Amino acid sequence: MAPETRKPAKAAASRKAKTDPKPKTAAPVDEGQIIDDLDEGRLRMRGRARAILGITGEETGRPSMLAAAGTVGWYPVIALGLLVLVDQFQDCLLLILGPEISQTLGISKGLLAFLGILKTFTVMAATLPLAAYVQRGRRRAMTATATGLAFALATMLCAFVANLWGLLGLLVVNGASSGSTLSVHPSLLVDSYPPEARVRVLSLYRAAVAVGTVVAPLLIVVVTVAADLTWRTAFLVLGLVSLAAVIVSIRLRDHGYGALDTDEIRREVRAQSDTSDTSDTGDTGDTDDTGAVGRLGEDGEAVHPATELGFFEIIQRVLLVPTFVRLVAAWAAVGMLSFPFYTYLFFYLDNRWNMGVEGRSLFLALIALVSIPCVLAFGSLGEGLYRRDPGRMMRLVGLTTGLIVIGLVVGVESPIFVVMILGFAVVSGAAAVLAPALYMVTLSVVPPTMRPHAAGLAGLIAAGAGSIGGLLILSSIGGRYGTGNALVVLALPIALGAWTLYRAGAQTTADIDHVIDDVVEHEEIAVLRSQHRHLPMLACRHIEFAYGQLQVLFDVDFTVDEGERVALLGTNGAGKSTLLRVVSGLGLPSRGAVHFQGADITYLDAERRLDLGITQIPGGRAIFGPLSVADNLRVYGHSLGRDRKSLQRGIDATFEAFPRLDERRNQLATSLSGGEQQMLALGKAFILQPQLLLIDELSLGLAPKIVGELLAMVRRINETGTAIVLVEQSLNIALSIVDHAYFMEKGEIRFDGPAPDLLGRPDLLRSVFLEGAAKGLG
Q: At what angle do helices 674-688 and 704-719 cross, to 10 degrees?
């Protein structure tokens, strides 16, 4: 069972009582064998797991769309397609009727563009809160329908605005509802269909956007030109159409995260481990994509474990995915090709080609119509490429995005009307391919529970860096050099997006494999727990870490058992302190996993790890100099909350262990000697009573007598059941206290075994000590 958080009202001493005791049948820990078993299971399952995720290495053998949809049918993609279709209506109205709205309400072109920026800010503000709302529970279908209703009502009410402020308020409501199409729709759609149909389903969804862009201008022509009505009537009619789409979508259902992909991988792991029967697995609880192992309460309902990732922890996790980082420029290009591009395009058509409402409406409908067969063709082609290699699909999309740059320049610079239309038709068709490809990759390189967050971040980038950045570029260039030249300049950042898409292909498959490995490893651990095999209290698996471009840790495996004393040895710069930072949560790895008592805490914040029982004493930075000794100890007990009795017991125990601190309790910490400062730092362990204590450079610069006193206290702390990890450069000090030793060099584990065995490795000793000291020990 996963560790639970400590309630402030309970004493710190009760922390150990909150975790399940070892099963009576537990065998001694064989850490090497456990790691080998996990690695074997991960490699054994990778090929099968790829096939479950739709990556078979072959472009042939794809089922038909109807067969791939299976029992789900067409309803989810139709319902969500209708919602995103009508979501285009208000943008089309503002783009096409912008000059007329500007004249009626007395709003300048610049002010209308500014309203578009404010709406974009609203979209940005709504994407991640909506992702946080649907993070737990099956809320995505209900959220999609509710936001669609808000959009329909806002569109109808736009018909009655009388001034700038009324229009602004309704645009804000519309922007908030549009946030759902960015963060909720894609993840719900992906989880509603099996992997072999997802590229085609996302392409159909994007085709619905194009259909909306076709229908809206035609309705505008019918209402404002054929029927000779005002732009207000157009808003009212399109709002009613939007309301009808919402009614169609009320039967949407959320099937849960990963129901058709990672859940299938888990079942395969269970089947291959011969533990699929309920007698072996019924007491293990549920697992989610964070790797946390849940438990059942007395009422039989699932209880969320203390290691379930929070919203901001998930955001950090997504931002560490290399493919996602590489796609930032591509998502920004998508944002530039939305509101800012079309806003200035229609002013360009008005000024350069003297197009009125009818002409602009038909132009938009025509180029949107061209994009429909393009995106539908990509659905079939992209599915085959993704099935063979997701990287190949990304490279194709990168080349396709290059066509946008060419079409944009041709459309603006051509003096021939037909060539101008062809240029912008190329832009529309190529841009339509971007969204399904980007969403497919973005949602594939993160665990299913993080899909709304990844889609929300992508939408935030598109709306922020894309839309706002595009408007700033267009407004600054357009005001001085003309609208046409501003559109040409917009081709430069889009070209950058095309290049990053092409380069992202090399990393995409590797990041999908990382998702697979995490799922397999988490389920393997659940299987081991169900078999009552004793797992190490702490297990770091394949840890890699980098400071910017400088990688410090390379594929590090590191384990600590309950009550064990472990040393991390090596020279300065070997990565010892960095590994401690990863364990304590002060640094997040770029690859690998950290498990504590069987639960994945890789991306858990440092303060939450403290509640689980992990405490670190950093070398030379463990005290608050301007505070007194007593106040330092009180600060250490901050996480105890209002449990003053436990805090006082910890302070008394510290003063009992270190009488010199008691004598100086009212002195400033900076006035203490180096040894006394380390004593004060060790007081944290007496107060918090952790299950795992990480000590960085305990003996650095201290006299042997003081070091001996500190080591005696470390032994005393260990005797209470606290496991110790000691970072040391002194072999003599390390071997005098620890049972197990890890030697690190250049970010890798070079030696792992019983501490005395290190004396038999003179090559490693020379790395720790001077040559003469090594010979003397020999």
A: 0
User: How far is Cα 721 from Cα 709, in angstroms, rounded to an integer?
Assistant: 20
Q: Which two tokens stand for residue 53?
A: 């995720």
Q: How many CB atoms lie within 10 A of CB 769?
A: 18
What is the C-alpha separation between 316 and 290, in angstroms, rounded? 13
Element (H, E) at 333: helix 328-336
Pick from 558, 693, 701, 565: nearest CA to 620: 701
Q: Rounded CA gap, 59 and 544, in Å?
A: 33
Calpha distance 77→86 (Å, rounded): 14
Residues 295 and 590: their CA atoms lie apart, in Å, by: 29
- At 67-90, the pLDDT tens digits run 666 667 889 999 999 998 888 777
Query: Which of 146, 169, 152 lies closest to 237, judged by CA?
Result: 152
Q: Which tokens is 32 given?
A: 């090497």
State the angle between helix axes of 491-530 and 31-52 in degrees (0 to 180), rounded to the nearest 10: 130
pLDDT over 60 at 13, yes or no: no
**Residue range 95-141, pLDDT digits in tens:** 777 777 877 887 776 777 777 777 777 888 889 999 999 988 889 99
CA distances 38 to 13, 287, 749, Å, are 34, 17, 18
Amino acid at 769: F
Give Cβ neighbours of residue 180 (< 8 Å, ≥ 6 apart). Answer: 126, 130, 143, 144, 147, 148
Task: Using only the alpha carbons of the chain, give its radius of gyration.
Answer: 31
The answer to whether 478 and 123 are in contact (CB under 8 A) is no
Strands of the 740-745 sheet, one edge to the other: 614-617, 692-696, 723-728, 565-569, 740-745, 748-754
Tens-digit pLDDT profile for residues 214-251: 887 787 778 777 666 777 888 888 888 889 999 999 99
pLDDT digits (tens, 9 = 90+) for 592-644: 889 998 888 999 999 899 889 999 988 766 788 888 988 888 888 887 777 78
Spell out the domains of the chain, with CATH numbers in brackets.
Answer: 68-258+312-514 (1.20.1250.20), 538-777 (3.40.50.300)
Alpha-carbon distance of 487 to 411, in angstroms, equals 10
pTM above 0.70, yes or no: yes
For 468, phi and psi rounded to 5 degrees?
-70, -45
Buried b (16+ CB within 10 A) or exposed e, 558-577: bbbbbebbbbbbbeeebbbb
Residues 283, 578: contact at Cβ < 8 Å? no
Question: Which residue, chain included where needed, has tokens 């590994």?
Answer: 579
Sorted by sequence, the CB contacts under 8 Å of residue 567 that are 6+ apart come out as 725, 726, 727, 728, 734, 735, 737, 738, 740, 741, 742, 755
Q: Distance of CA 659 to CAs 568, 606, 663, 709, Å?
A: 30, 31, 6, 12
List pLDDT tens digits, range 276-297: 444 443 343 444 444 343 333 3
Task: With a cut of 60, say whether residue 778 has pLDDT above it.
Answer: no
**Among the listed residues 254, 288, 313, 259, the one whose alpha carbon sits nearest the alpha carbon of residue 132:** 313
Beta bridge mates, 287: 293
For the chain, the straight-line distance linking the first and the last C-alpha, in angstroms and rounded, comes to 46
Distance CA(34)–CA(40), nearest Å, equals: 10
